[in-house]
Design brief:
alpha/beta; TIM Barrel; 8-stranded parallel barrel; 232 residues; 2 domains; 16% strand; single chain
Amino acid sequence: MIRNDFEIYLNCENPEVVKKYFDLYPFLAGVTTNPAMISRLGRTDYFNILKEIREVIGNKKLFAQVISHDYNEIIEEAMLIRRAGGENTIVKIPAMEFGIKAIHTLTEMGIRTLGTLVCSTIQGVMAIQAGAEFVVPFYFHMKDAGLDPVSVTRELVEYTKVSGTGKVISAAHRTLEEFGECIGLGVHGLTLNPDFITMGMLNDTAVKNLNFFTESWEKVFGSGTKIIDLAK
């Protein structure tokens, strides 16, 4: 069966950087953020940041995370995030005991959620059972902790197939090999940092060959000559 639901999300908190990368890669499905990322901006006008990102990405998905660990406050924060981010905003909630009930309540309220900080299969399964539309395994964080991100990711993908619910979005990749590994595991999407995208797209081998093509061409047609110049 051919999959047509794979999506790539830009993991970025800076509206200006979001604008740059959405111009370069207009097919990106949306933007993911978290509290630590937002704090890097040094700004306290949180709701304006969400609105600025929304203005850049249009109606694409925007993922923003709650900060509270209290059920009632999570519900309130989720509603505020949704109000600032607009209709196609998905609220990220830690897939931990204090967050699962909130995911269930918000789902019943019609607010879309994502279970984040998933470092075990049971976390992801419980989040999906509670109603989370997405779950996010933290890939290299699991590796650093001596856990097995491949098994967790694979098992969650299999669970979505068996249950017919939920989507797995892999996050926190440090190498291009991890990026490819996750695709091979059948995830529904990936979140990528801007610098990771640039690193992969401008890898040394590709740049070396690009320069070779240019140098070979210019030896015959002249330095700086382009194909369009030959039509003049």
